[in-house]
Specification:
By secondary structure, this protein is an alpha/beta fold. It has ten helices and ten strands. The chain has a six-stranded mixed beta sheet with strand order 1-2-10-7-8-9, with helices on both faces. Strands 5-4-3-6 form a four-stranded parallel beta sheet. Helix 2 packs across helix 6 and helix 8 crosses helix 9.
């Protein structure tokens, strides 16, 4: 039954609040023309605000699905600890969800270059971080990688490794919930779906549902450019750690750099869409692709029944965990000056 009033009560109120299937559709918001250089060509760009989930990030969707499916299959019996390779949203979401299914302890392998702010976030959520020096050219079966170590730890009878990089319940969550929401909200008139590539679960699951409704729908994946940093996203080399056949779900690939990803994130946040760097990366890749389409054959082959090109990209999380990173990648001229800065008592 639809929860129109969005009220959660009773002994399972918080667990139900975390269940994506019991929530209203997440907002789908059209970007203004200032972010869309092709608006005059009847191209429309919509942000799917996954950061509006109860836990503030897209990983809450697969985290709930992965843990609940294990619970329904009685695979949480005897489990006392969750272990995952993650330095942020995934393991935080897993830890919170797992507590509602009887598992109170969570540990996580994190890379040596993890930011102090993200480390504090893990500690805040009661997660035990295990710092790991990742190999320079990792593969999913490299014994030195955190993915491999978490998988081996998960073989202990008291420990579960949900395995976000290979667990079918990761993309399955987006096939179950995210894809249907986007299809319903666009009335089936979506012309292009675009998503950043991290574990690739969001893209695979959502694309699977959308292409089942419209097999001709083009899907664009955006990875971070080599040598560039965007939290939660992966370069092509780092995508070797992912066990899914993500390429089979893509029609186009773009790479995006750090500066444009952080800048677009900040610009969207300044107009009221509080989205993080990975959202900026997806939008950057989408705009690059649209520029190529226009320069090539134009948009006519992508138009829906209304004569529009309707593009959707998910926004995985917000900017707040990464505030200390923006000055590293965005030009100083983009930030206002601090008046009387010399009076600050806690200047870094």
């Amino acid at each position: 039954m639809e929860n129109r009033l969005n009220v959660f009560e009773g002994p399972d109120a918080v667990r139900n609040f975390l269940d994506p299937g019991k929530l209203p559709n997440l907002p789908l918001v059209e970007l203004p023309a200032s972010f869309n250089p092709h608006a005059g060509d009847r191209v429309r760009i919509f942000a799917k605000l996954m950061n509006m989930l109860p836990l503030g990030n897209v990983k809450a969707v697969p985290a709930f699905n992965m843990i609940r499916e294990k619970y329904l299959k009685s695979e949480l019996e005897g489990v006392e600890r969750i272990i995952e390779n993650s330095s942020g949203n995934t393991v935080s979401s897993l830890a919170i969800v797992a507590r509602h299914f009887g598992v109170d302890k969570t540990s996580s392998y994190v890379p040596a270059e993890i930011s102090w702010n993200k480390l504090l976030m893990l500690l805040f959520f009661g997660i035990n971080p295990i710092v790991n020096e990742e190999p320079a050219d990792p593969s999913e079966n490299d014994p030195a990688s955190g993915v491999y170590k978490a998988r081996k730890d998960g073989e202990r009878p008291d420990t579960l490794n949900p395995g976000q990089y290979e667990n079918p319940d990761n993309p399955g969550a987006h096939e179950k919930w995210t894809g249907p929401q986007i299809w319903e909200q666009t009335d089936g008139k979506i012309s292009l779906y675009c998503a950043g590539l991290g574990t690739t679960g969001t893209l695979i699951g959502t694309a699977t549902y959308l292409k089942r409704q419209n097999p001709c729908l083009p899907v664009l994946g955006v990875m971070r450019a080599p040598g560039h940093y965007v939290p939660g996203a992966r370069t092509e080399k780092l995508l070797n750690l992912v066990g899914y056949d993500w390429r089979a779900h893509l029609d186009h690939i773009e790479c995006a750099e750090s500066e444009v990803s952080y800048r677009l994130s900040m610009e969207m946040s300044r107009i009221g869409l509080l989205v993080g760097p990975t959202s900026g990366m997806a939008l950057a890749g989408l705009l690059q692709h649209l520029n190529k389409v226009k320069a090539d054959d134009g948009f006519d082959g992508m138009r829906n029944s209304d004569g529009e090109v309707l593009c959707v990209f998910p926004c995985p999380d917000g900017p707040l965990p990464y505030l200390d990173e923006y000055p590293k990648y965005v030009d100083a001229s983009e930030f206002p000056a601090i008046r009387n800065e010399e009076l600050l008592l806690n200047k870094p």
